[in-house]
């Protein structure tokens, strides 16, 4: 990993940690896969911190630009899957 995670200086330390955990989960889905509900729990916490769709898009686009991993496609795939399913992306978008 040769990039940094996007975050806001307005967030608390715990919020920054939780947002980074979500972005790390996106990486994990691409690199190894993850159980759907685990990812969705991290995404729900991310949405508590970043409730606005436009803000979500801003942070996820910034993460994708630096990492090549699409949070949007990972969450979309997770929403289409059923609880208990393993989700994994086959390639970077």
Automatic annotation (TrEMBL):
Source organism, top-level taxon: Bacteria
Xref: InterPro entries: BH2638-like_sf (IPR023324), UPF0223 (IPR007920)
UniProt family annotation: Belongs to the UPF0223 family.
Annotated protein name in UniProt: UPF0223 protein GFC30_1364
């Amino acid at each position: 990993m040769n990039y940094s995670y996007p975050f806001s200086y307005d967030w608390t330390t715990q919020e920054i940690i939780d947002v980074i955990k979500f972005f790390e989960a996106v990486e994990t889905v691409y690199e190894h896969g993850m159980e759907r509900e685990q990812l969705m729990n991290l995404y729900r916490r991310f949405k508590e911190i970043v409730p606005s769709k436009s803000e979500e898009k801003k942070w996820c686009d910034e993460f994708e630009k630096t990492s090549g991993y699409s949070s949007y496609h990972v969450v979309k795939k997770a929403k289409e899957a059923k609880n208990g399913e393993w989700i994994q992306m086959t390639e970077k978008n």
